[in-house]
Amino acid sequence: MTEVELRGWGPGDVEVVIDAFGAPDMAEQAARPIDTPRAALEWMGMWGFRDDAQAFAVVVGGQVVGNVAVSDIDSHDTGWVSYWTVSHARGRGVAVAAVTKLADWAFRERGLFRLELGHRTSNRASCAVATRAGFLTEGVERAKLSHGGVRYDVERHARLATD
């Protein structure tokens, strides 16, 4: 498995965030465009002011190549996992290593019991990341997401601290 480091986001990461969200497949993942230094800093800062979330920059060989996060942590010790990598880091096991490391951190440091994630059913790469990181498939949520007026089914996965 690829060796990754997880660390907090910082002002020196602005260009990575802008470049990542400038990719066509990433642009729709944010609530609003992240195409300026201010927008990138706001995106990074959003993670720092939440009690129910933690995001980490994914670093490989000294370069930031992605993000992993757990959010919406609730009173049932459940959190929602999200992840992305820049295009040149894909297909190398980076996301799997980062999600695995995040899950270990969430169970150990945050005391969570259940982690959930979801992906569009058409996103085979994200499904592979989830399953290789130990997240079991739990089912399909029909027409859960809407992007550009199109509804998408989402496959839900979960991993328990006892898995």
From TrEMBL:
Molecular function (Gene Ontology), one example: protein N-terminal-serine acetyltransferase activity
GO CC annotations, alphabetized: cytoplasm
Listed Gene3D superfamilies: 3.40.630.30
Start and end residues of each N-acetyltransferase domain: 4-157
This protein's name: N-acetyltransferase domain-containing protein
